[in-house]
Design a protein that fits this description.
Rossmann fold; 15 strands; binds uridine-diphosphate-N-acetylglucosamine
Amino acid sequence: MKKLILVAGARPNFMKIAPLMHALKGNSSIQAVLVHTGQHYDVKMSGQFFEELNIPAPDINLEVGSASHAVQTARIMEGFEKVCLDEKPDFVLVVGDVNSTAACTMVAAKLNIKTIHYEAGLRSRDRTMPEEINRLVTDAITDVFLTTSVDADENLLKEGIPAEKIHMVGNLMIDSLVANQYKASQTALQFQLLNRNQNIAFGNDFTENNYGVMTFHRPSNVDDKESLTQLVKIWGEVSNKIPLVFPVHPRTYKNIQSFGLQELINNFSQLYFIEPLGYLQFIHLVQHAKFALTDSGGIQEETTYMNIPCLTVRPNTERPVTIWEGSNKLIKIEDILSEVELILHGKGKTGKTPNYWDGKTASRIVEIIENL
Ligand code: UD1
């Protein structure tokens, strides 16, 4: 029996790890050990995803919590080295591009443990993004490259990775979506507004195909007072045309408070700021939305699968397949309003589902690991 450690750290990791844990259950040749680094730690960013996606409780939790990049990465490395020395795994599998991904790959590689990176080869070519540094570090030293799309394969081949180490497996996030879309559609969409004594409900304050769903948390958009103020004003203008529902990431919420922007937000009666949502409610919210307005990575993929127009407010994306084939469009802050107008006039972008985004990625990955 081979021992495989799977690493999960931050919110976008959990929907990728869930289908793998399910596919590995009862496997007679692979013993799975789940390590949570604790990079995300509260119920809203972590706990409820384990519950809703039926992920077994982690075997080990490093409980590193929030800190600067260097401190958080160092804490993960220190904790994970002990885990590897105790557990002596044959393989370590990491997903995505967060600090936990790069930190655990470095630890395993130095202990000569074979590493597997799911979501290898994605490149934004923007080294100001911490995620791009994590992708480059991880792919420089990992042994097995599992990819979601052809552009990732091409990037890796150009970087000199031998073709036999690269496996196009499809998209684990879409596995979670396929498995949960019905259940998601059955969850209630009723929320309390943040900092306002008011509740909103689907079918009443925002209705089918007549609202936008929004997420923003990239440091480049929300850590700078000027850029966040400009964004709040534009969100307000958009919300005068169509309700905007915004489950607010803790980073963004903290900055809104410290830059004194809450009062400005309160001026817009259809700009709905709510707590971060669990997986099922969030997917349900996207299912009925007219469009998504975001700077997230994963939402570009989920909207492409659901064929819902997605406006991504970033100068680049590491997921270009969502643009060539999907319903995603990269836009500038100053173009948000005109792009929303286009969608409201029925000119939103539509697309098709990329290859292998079919809900069967986890079983393809298990087969590859069985043959390593
Ligand atoms: C991290 C990832 C990013 C991913 C995002 C999804 C890195 C470098 N970044 O960014 O790629 O898209 O997660 O959410 O790994 N906080 C809480 N509760 C939590 C976790 C965080 O309140 O459970 C607060 C922290 O105190 C901090 C802020 O949220 O102030 C940001 O958290 P952090 O983990 O530093 O980075 P993210 O912006 O979430």
